[in-house]
Structures are given as structure tokens and as C-alpha cells.
Amino acid sequence: MDEPYPKHGFFSWNELMTTDVEAAKAFYTGLLGWTTEDKPMPEMGMTYTLLKVGDTAVGGIMAMPPEAGPMPPVWGSYVNVDDVDAAAEKAVALGGTVYKAPTDIPGVGRFCVVGDPQGAFLALIKFKMEG
Question: What region does 83 belong to: left with phi over 0, alpha with psi -120 to 50, or beta?
Fold first, then answer.
């Protein structure tokens, strides 16, 4: 592939939102042999932990954001889309819900979180392509 995650509809990232980042890091590095790399994101008021297999990032861990409410820790999946804002609008038109409005992640791309009519949620993302 010429660029990472180029196709609309591909699952492209997995992320754990948790109430205890350090415990999660210890569990998953011990269980799966992953390594971690903390990435301070001061513009978002947080540190994001990359999960790696060798030199390849395969997912991330972040502290549960306040807007998640009383939700338990959860793994979430990201699916690449061509246009995050249009996809969020289409989700609503199809009877879904936008749980997190389209938002920029500095240096990464733009994402939102939508739910299907049954309540299952999924993050949609358009990665910023370098070049």
C-alpha cells in the first residue's frame, strides 16, 4: 500500500479506553508481549499510549474521558472513512446517533464516534496523510 489505511471502510485502529491505564499496560504487555510508548498530547490534555508489536503500532490505550460517563472500560475499533463529517451526517440519516461529534486530533486526523440504531458504537476516522 502506498499510504496507511487508504480505503474507506477498512478497520484501521483499535483503542482501549480504561479507568486504569497503568494496570492495562501491565496486563496487555504481560499477556501479549506488546510494548508501549507514551505520547504526550498537551493540546488534548492527555497522554496517549501506543501499543506496539516490534516497531509497529497496533493500537492504543487512553484514560476514560469524562464525556464517556459511567461506561466501563472498553475496546473500540476505528474504521477509515473518506469524509468524517459526511459519515457522521449519514449515520444520523440512517437512524444512528453521533456520540462524539467530528473532532480533529492534532497530527493524526479527524474522527467521530457513531452508534447504530441498536446502540453499538464505532469510531470513524480520516487519518492525516503526510506528504
Answer: beta
Provide the residue type at 120 as one letter.
A
* Cα dist from 117 to 3, 68, 73, 104, whole Å: 33, 19, 22, 25
Q: CA-to-CA distance for 2 and 62, rounded, in angstroms?
A: 29
Q: How far apart are CA 8 and CA 90, in angstroms?
A: 14
Is residue 8 within 8 A of residue 79, CB to CB? The reply is no
Distance, CA of 38 to chain centre: 15
**Length of the chain, in residues:** 131
pLDDT at 2: 45
Nearest to 74 by CA among 101, 113, 126: 113
Q: Is the pLDDT reported for residue 71 higher than 50?
A: yes
Provide mean pLDDT across the span 28-47: 94
Q: What is the C-alpha to C-alpha distance for residues 80 and 126, in angstroms, rounded to an integer?
A: 6
- The span from the CA of 18 to the CA of 71, in Å, is 9
**pLDDT, average across residues 101-111:** 94
